[in-house]
């Protein structure tokens, strides 16, 4: 089951990346299609050139259809940010991890004492938490403690080591902390790069944290990493607080079930 969670997460990361690539690729194809059209018009009395260009046009059309399919498949278009309860997302990921993470890891979940609403896609929020939790697990092969925490933080806008920097204000904060092997500075400096991995071939894709970074920054948030080699790693994720109750308590369930008894 553990393997399956990891596999699903890897596939989702890959899907996100493929979606992004497909989107950019589609734009490039549109340019090629345009210029091919111009060139066909300009061929004049050179039918053999025209025939070649028609081949190009057919190939571009096929490629466009393929990328369109890929976009639908990866649901890149289906990202739906909503007002989500951070505590509910935390509880759901906690429940999932309790079933899958293994006996050797002591899982501690500390939800916030007050409701916290953030504007994000609930599936992506899960993905962020899961990606970080799975990395934490991988960093503790001999066991250890994984803490998941939600609370608030007041930022003064001068924080260092925030990627990217955030304006001053009050934010929702997610903390994911492990007592694992930690990272040397040269690894910590590169972890958000796509395809950067220190895991053996076939085990790591290097896309987990790149995906986390993309989701968090897309939601207007920021991420902070503190790691000490041999001691452990803490990720802090800051997201803009929404001053409203959550539309969604859990991944897909309406927060206020229809009343009336
Ligand atoms: P992957 O997990 O496929 O390697 P990631 O982007 O999720 O890709 O992580 C990149 C690298 O960052 C990992 O290979 C590992 O070296 C390092 N890393 C990430 N999280 C942790 C952690 N909690 N503890 C130690 N190292 C970590």
Overview of this structure, please?
It is found in: Cell membrane. This is histidine kinase. Residues 20-243 form the Histidine kinase domain. A 5-stranded mixed beta sheet has the order 2-4-5-7-6. A two-stranded antiparallel ribbon has the order 1-3. A two-stranded antiparallel ribbon has the order 8-9. The chain is built from 6 helices and 9 strands. Helix 1 crosses helix 4, helix 3 packs across helix 4 (122-138) and helix 4 (122-138) packs antiparallel against helix 6 (208-218). The chain has 261 residues and is of the alpha+beta class. Adenosine-5'-diphosphate is lined by residues 131, 135-136, 139, 178, 180-183, 187, 191, 196-199, 204-210, 233.
Strand sequence of the main sheet, in spatial order? 2-4-5-7-6
Mean pLDDT: 84
Helix/strand/pairing category: alpha+beta
- What is the number of helices? 6
Distance between the termini: 40 Å
Estimate the strand proportion.
15-25%
**What is the percent of helical residues?**
40-55%
Small molecules held by this entry: adenosine-5'-diphosphate
**Radius of gyration, Cα only, in angstroms?**
23 Å
Multimer state: single chain
Order of helices and strands: HHEHEEHEEHHEEEE
Main sheet attributes: strand count, strand direction, barrel closure = 5 strands, mixed
Number of strands: 9
The dominant shape is elongated
Low-pLDDT stretches:
252-261
